[in-house]
Design goal:
about 140 residues; TIM Barrel; two-stranded antiparallel sheet; 3 helices; globular
Length: about 140
């Protein structure tokens, strides 16, 4: 597996990452865990999630992808340092088709909503940090 440094952070990220946007809608929790195990065995270290996932975004499933990663992390705590965990914060719902159910339609990029979003992600992910947190306007936190 080839790796690149993430900016000037010193974090090494695999050129291939595992996208997780179908977990909780098209893939089960068991399948999600199997996929994580498989990619780690192949040398992939980047897991990409979002508070909005899975897609299509629905109130009934919102956050389930992060929950599946969280249950994997709870069972594999010793492997937390082996992954680079990225998540994304849902932005303002300016278009009629954009989800308005996330954080009670409070998906604005202000301090209150950014803190609420990352706190919710950390709880679902069952970890005390994410390596990369992105909003629609760019990185908001990094290791």
């Amino acid at each position: 597996m080839k790796f690149r440094k993430l900016g000037d952070s010193g974090v090494e990220v695999s050129l291939i990452g595992l996208g997780t946007m179908t977990w909780g809608e098209q893939n089960t929790e068991r399948e999600a865990h199997e996929q994580i195990d498989y990619v780690l065995a192949q040398g992939v270290n980047l897991l990409d999630a979002a508070e909005m996932y899975p897609v299509p975004p629905r109130p009934e499933t919102q956050g389930r992808t992060e929950q599946y990663i969280g249950t994997w992390l709870a069972k594999n705590q010793a492997k937390r340092g082996d992954i680079v965990l990225a998540t994304k914060i849902a932005g303002p719902a300016r278009q009629p088709h954009n989800p308005r159910h996330i954080r009670g339609a409070g998906n604005q990029f202000d301090r209150k909503n950014l803190n609420e979003a990352i706190d919710g992600s950390l709880k679902r992910l069952q970890t005390d940090y994410v390596d990369i947190c992105i909003s629609c306007t760019g990185p908001t936190a990094a290791r």
